[in-house]
Design a protein that fits this description.
Layout lengths: L1 H22 L2 H22 L5 H19 L1 H17 L15 H8 L6 H12 L4 H7 L4 H17 L12 H20 L10 H17 L4 H14 L25 H15 L6 H14 L8 H15 L2 H15 L1 H10 L10 H13 L3 H14 L3 H15 L7
Amino acid sequence: MELVAAVFREERGRLLAALARRFGDLDLAEEVTSEAIEAALVSWPVDGVPPRPGAWLMTTARRRAIDRLRRDQAYAARLAILQVEADRAGPVPPPGTDGDLPDERLLLFFTCAHPALAAEDRGALTLRFLGGLTTAEVARAFVVPTETMAKRITRAKKKISQARIPFRVPAAHELPQRLPGVLQSVYSIFTEGYAASAGPRLQRVDLAEEAIRLARILRRLLPGEREVAGLLALMVLVHARRDARTGPDGELVLLADQDRSRWDHAMIAEGVGLVRTALSGGRPGPYGVQAAIAALHDEAADVATTDWPQIAALYDVLLALTGSPIVAVNRAVAVAMRDGPQAGLALLDELSGEARLRGYHPYAVARADLLHRAGRHAEAAVAYRGAIELAGTTPERDLLRRRLNAIERPGGCVG
């Protein structure tokens, strides 16, 4: 059954993408994909897994779809339209030609991350259709009620249908505008897994690993795109620290205090190799630069010997590429490690008017920590109280409370 489950996990996205492209209907594609999998669950344990399981599932799903279209007058009309469109488009290119796609899941990546869809819907659709998560699992990932997520997914599917969003890969000249949305969609899944926005746990390891799996698919489908390599590099380099980021009781362990022997060094080696790919052959992209920063952290023996001047310089590059105030916060922390807390605080103070940073938890934490390092303990205590109010997870709040308590004790200090 493990082999069968692995096949379903690998093939589900391909089935959905191919059927959605063929019939232009995500609902229909999802329904017949589920029916094909159910049929396999009945047949394969008796007859064995076929030599080409993906082809078996595709044939079964396609037949179910055509049968349903023939029985339904409304769908029958759509089938006729689809046939006309297919005739106009001409024959499907044979394998190996320039028009052939190595894997039709690429269509679904771009459809789920289409700019016409709401930003909050893109990651949800990607998890639902490419990650294979149930609606309830997607809801848990985004910390919303299942009913809310069901409505969100339904709304997004209607948008795809009503706006006639095409199930296709953008042309080469469109990729620079469209690919960042796909990468951001996958990265948003990873960040929620790496640092949960709310709840009792700091990490959702399963979610982070699903994002990495999706990025590996993208890497296979778009091997020439350096930013895809950069995104995968960034995620594996950060995820390599997962086992050391929490203690026995789930408490948050900061980078400076982590047992680096517990880091996944094979994953780090993979990430460093991907960084070289991401940074070669032209101007680097934001994910490639972030991955280079992560690599410097992972290759250092400890925080004291980390190459902070190079990290600060890379943040200069990243800030020039993105103009993001969130990047500016990270840059301020790196500058503080290089030049001292007052230098970092000066940069954070310059950002105090940024609307995007109001209520941004990492900004509040960075300011509290730098105030403490600068010996401004009364101000640090106030800043820590504000950061506690903004913290989303229990481990983050507990750590900040420990730091606040240490400051407020007579003669207390934070290590």
